[in-house]
Amino acid sequence: MFDSIKIAFQYITPKHLISRIVGKLAAAEAGGLTTALIKLFIKQYKVNMAEAERENPADYASFNEFFTRPLKDDARIICPNEQDLAMPVDGAMSQSGDIKHDSIFQAKGHDYSLTTLLGGKPELAAPFKNGKFATVYLAPKDYHRIHMPMDGQLTDMVYVPGDLFSVNPLTARRVPGLFARNERVVAIFNTPKGKMAMVLVGATIVASIETVWAGTVSPPVGKNVVHWQYPSEGEEAVFLKKGDELGRFKLGSTIVACFEPDMVELADYSAGDDTRLGDVFATLTQ
Asked: Where is the protein found, in the record's own terms (predicted)?
């Protein structure tokens, strides 16, 4: 009963307005007040600051700076085997498995459209039909930068406007098409073994989604799908190596990774299993 009330409340709250207000507060440099908020957050969510490049909460000028904190160089090891893809984020596995033609499994009783996830663009979705997917949820305590599972050349980025439901496990079980209805940023890469899509999904109080090549993508892009294409050569070309930072969330969310058919075999994660940046995410099948 209480879970149903929480979900119903999400439908009626002004999620975009709340998220933008929280974003402004999180960006504020309020001295002692900011430090006190960071300390409270660390205590509440049991954040492991021993892994952070800057362990002292007072060293962060804003909450956003703390939330997107870099880790120490040796805090994560990127799996070295060339056949292995690296887990792109710290978090928890939501779901993973086969893309059944254009359908991705969200939770019991809920599937959603691959094409819708990728911005309603059939030409971008076509290579991934009958491929593999993995959805990973980032909790508030987690490291909130996203890294590359394998080497890749960026070909397309799509901003997709949408809602801002929470993306926690409860909402994933109760809100149909959650990841294909929330605001998101889609990045498509050519890799040496096929195409890879990395989808950064927004959520309630996510202040912004950033990529390393474009900076802040959302907000304030707007109410229309926006599609950018990138060259393979020249100053605007974007090539990232396995383990390189791809982007970051300010205040948490979810990533969905998609791969072409017969490209990878996903590692044996069950729903709810913890994930750790750099561990084996998948293995190339060719």
From this structure: Cell membrane
